[in-house]
Amino acid sequence: MINDKDEIARLADEYVLGLLEPMEAEAVEVEMETNPDLAKAVGESQDWFLPLDLSATSETLREGFAGEVKQALGPEQEAASATSKVVPMTARKKKSPWLSKQGLWPAIAATIIGIIIGSYLPLNRPEPVIVAVLVDANGVAQAIVEDYGNSEAQIRFVSDVEVPTGKTMQLWTLPSTETGPVSLGVLPGVQPAVVDGPSLPAPKQQQLYEVTFEPLGGSPTGKPTGPILGKGLGVLQGS
């Protein structure tokens, strides 16, 4: 059983990002059955990468993608990963060469995630400051909110949403308990939308976002009044 916390964290991230060979991924799944620490780490990694997973559309990797990754890894890291062997984790006595190099995994992850993000973010839009996955009362993801920290935010729906007759959807955030909920805008429908809300302090980790059903034209009180479609806490990007 693997007990080293750093190795567990790296393996969990690799497994969730799909960087393991099929036999290695299978070994992780077998290990999780008897290793609660690894199972927990995989769950936490899945939660962490969920915004990226849900917001990224399927794309064909551009020509030269593999070369970019190899170049980013550098000759030493590339050689190390090329010479590592697939060994069942329960039989490992030492870490594989590329996992044991201090600081290598964060660099690889940052490189690959950066390339993936760059392949689907609109060219004329910067990376968001914060991303929130809005889920309903059953924990089902309904929408992704990307807040750019300049009063502008983007929302995309990831589930089939039925807007009741005579209602509209409105996006809210909670910059602080003193301020209370603030409207970022009334949404035009279930299609992706960019909203330009009021000037607010820079969004922070765990900031609340939610979408409610309101009367046509938006909430008559300036605060949420209708049922909640989905809500979620923001995760700072690059933190």
Structure, briefly:
With 239 residues, the chain is α+β, with helices and mostly antiparallel strands. It has helices at 5-17, 22-34, 36-55, 65-83, 97-100, 104-120, and strands spanning 130-135, 141-147, 152-157, 167-174, 182-187, 193-196, 208-215, 228-236. An eight-stranded antiparallel beta sheet has the order 5-4-7-8-1-2-3-6, with helices on one face.
What labels would you give this structure?
8 strands; 23% strand; 8-stranded antiparallel sheet; 239 residues; alpha+beta; single chain
Q: Outline, from the CA principal axes?
A: elongated
State the distance separating the first and last CA atoms: 31 Å
Radius of gyration from CA coordinates: 21 Å
Query: Helix/strand-derived class?
Result: alpha+beta
SSE topology:
Layout: H1 5-17, H2 22-34, H3 36-55, H4 65-83, H5 97-100, H6 104-120, E1 130-135, E2 141-147, E3 152-157, E4 167-174, E5 182-187, E6 193-196, E7 208-215, E8 228-236
Antiparallel strand pairs: 1-2, 1-8, 2-3, 3-6, 4-5, 4-7, 7-8
